[in-house]
Amino acid sequence: MHHADVTTVNRRGFLAVVGAAVTTGPGLRADRADQVWHAGVARIDITPAQSIWMAGFALRKQPAQGTAMPLYAKALALQAGRGPAAVLVTVDLLGLTAAITDRVATIVRRRHGIPRARLLFNA
């Protein structure tokens, strides 16, 4: 489902900006502050507390019985110099709904001032 009021992430543009920033040599910029990279990472366990039906195995006849490995949501935030931050969010799931990504994007904008166009969700 696509909402008209939500900015769509331009994945090619996002990757081009990150790639260009990584390959830009230090001699190409006059201001040392522009050469400083900031990065942050975070991880949270999103493993359900109760047994749920799992996707990915069509012959399943009952909800999951225990946890073999925990499921995580992880984020990598990158900022080149004084430029805007970009955040890659990845989850150990088969997919994310627009409702979930919209809610996360709203919280991230409110708390950190990062617009939806600078968030890339990956499942």
Task: Please describe the structure with a list of short key phrases separated by commas or semicolons.
23% helix, alpha+beta, 2 helices, 123 residues, single chain, 23% strand, four-stranded mixed sheet
Q: Which regions have little confidence, pLDDT < 50, spanning 5+ residues? A: 1-9, 21-28
Shape label: elongated
* SSE series: HEEEHE
Rg over C-alpha atoms, rounded to the nearest angstrom: 18 Å
Count of helical regions:
2
Strands in their spatial order, largest beta sheet:
1-2-3-4
Q: From the helix content, strand content and strand pairing, which structural class follows?
A: alpha+beta
Arithmetic mean of pLDDT:
79
Could you tell me how far the N terminus lies from the C terminus, measured between alpha carbons in angstroms?
Answer: 17 Å
How much of the sequence is in beta strands? 15-25%
Relative helix content: 10-25%
Protein model, in words:
The protein has a four-stranded mixed β-sheet, covered by helices on one side. The longest helix has 15 residues, at 98-112. The chain is elongated and about 60 Å long. The chain is α+β, with helices and mostly antiparallel strands and 123 residues long. Residues 1-9 and 21-28 have low confidence and may be disordered. Helix content is 23%, strand content 23%.
Short synopsis of the structure:
This protein has 123 residues and is an alpha+beta fold.
Helices and strands in order:
Elements: H1 11-23, E1 37-45, E2 72-80, E3 86-91, H2 98-112, E4 119-122
Parallel strand pairs: 3-4
Antiparallel strand pairs: 1-2, 2-3
